[in-house]
Amino acid sequence: MFPVRCFSCGAVIAHKWEEYLAKLKEGKSTKEALNELGIDRYCCRRMFLSHKSVIDEFARFRGAVG
User: Fold this and answer.
1) Residues near 5 by Cβ (< 8 Å), separated by ≥ 6?
2) I need a labelling partner for 34 at 20 to 30 A (CA). Which of 2, 11, 40, 58 fits?
């Protein structure tokens, strides 16, 4: 559930999320991965660095509602 756009500048960034994760799995640092993806603005970089996936936490409650 990565945001489609940067909250500050509105740049579309969601299409780079999977590639970012792949670069991290290759052993690259976050700085190297973001630089290679062309994520230059600090507000967009913040979106990648501060994202926490909560889908697993929400999935626990899937059967509880309804």
Assistant:
1) 11, 12, 13, 14
2) 58
